[in-house]
Structures are given as C-alpha cells and as structure tokens.
Amino acid sequence: MADKELAKGKPDHSKNSPATVSEEEDLGYIELTDEVIAIVASLAAMDVPGVIDMSTGFREGISNFLGKKSLAKGVRVKVTGHSCRIAVYVTLEYGCNIPEVAMKLQKKVKSAVDEMTEYTAEFVDVHVEGVKRREKSELEISFNNPDGEMSDSIFN
Predict the structure, then answer these.
(1) What is the per-residue pLDDT across 55-91, written as a single tens digit (0 to 9) for each?
(2) What is the DSSP annotation of 133-154?
(3) Where in the chain is the domain with CATH 3.30.70.1350?
(4) If you compute the radius of gyration of the chain from its CA atoms, what whole number of angstroms results?
(5) DSSP state of 54
C-alpha cells in the first residue's frame, strides 16, 4: 500500500519512511541570542563610512565602567519569531550627510543580519546620538605641525 501511495504522489506516513524524518530534525535546532544579532548589527554599523562610534546608554555605560565591554554596544534588538526589530544608536562624523549615512546604515545592518542569521530584520531604526569630528591620526598631526618641531612626531 505504501508503494501505491508514493506512486500517486501521496506521502507515506509510516514511522520508518525516510520522507517523514528530515536531516535537520535529527541534528537539533539552532537558537541565537539577541546579543548575537546585536553584535552582527554593531559590527556592520561600524563599517559604514561616517559612523565614528556606537553610543552607549546608561546601562551599557555602567557595564563599561565595571569592565564589561560589549561588542553589541549601541544596539537594541527585539526578536519576534524569526523576525527582529533593531535600534542602532550612533555618533556620526561632523560634515557628513546625516540622512545619507543613516540610510546606508539601515541597508548595511539589515543586509548583514539577514545574511548571517536566519532572522529577518524588518525594521532598523537609526538614532543619531551625536556628531563629532574624527580624531586626527598621528601622521596627520605631524604634517600639520606649524612649528616644525618633531617632539610629537611619529618620526622621532
């Protein structure tokens, strides 16, 4: 009877049938914590040109003060089923086009979360917490030294 059902396109519901047991069920399931998704989002956000830093809230500030540095700093994640809502808190570079950077940030974070996890980032909310100048490197400082002194230079 099972051969007739399979021939007609109907599934065989017997316990020994390989059609009813998939390989994924034999291996178990995969569960990601909210913090893993937040780390993916944070690293993706830092790759966007114009983003200087991820802002920390009060709770993260206390954790950093106590010596617990988090790679997920500046990101909040709310997971519902296999979709998530992400809030990113950033400090942007002075002089950049804020709406353009924010849109690039949304696309980059959504793409990274969708590709690296099995979750779908439905919303990526960008909160610009501040704007500041990018710090100059030692090489830029040495070339802009008007006195010509080499005391602070990297060439000493």
Answers:
(1) 876 555 555 555 556 678 899 999 998 899 999 999 9
(2) PPPPPHHHHHHT-TT---TT-T
(3) 32-143
(4) 25
(5) E
pTM over 0.70? The answer is no
* Check whether domain 32-143 has CATH 3.30.70.1350, yes or no: yes
Q: Are 134 and 93 in contact (CB under 8 A)?
A: yes
- Coil, strand or helix: which one is 43? helix
- Which tokens is 126 given? 């960008």
Backbone torsions φ then ψ of 123, nearest 5 degrees? -130, 140
The phi, psi pair for 139, rounded to 5°, reads -65, -45
Contact call for residues 107 and 48 (beta carbons, < 8 A): no
Which residues on neighbouring strands pair with residue 131, listed in sequence order?
92
Residues 19/12, Cβ–Cβ less than 8 Å: yes
Distance CA 27, CA 67 (A): 38
Can you tell me the distance from the alpha carbon of 46 to that of 107, in angstroms, rounded to the nearest whole number?
Answer: 13
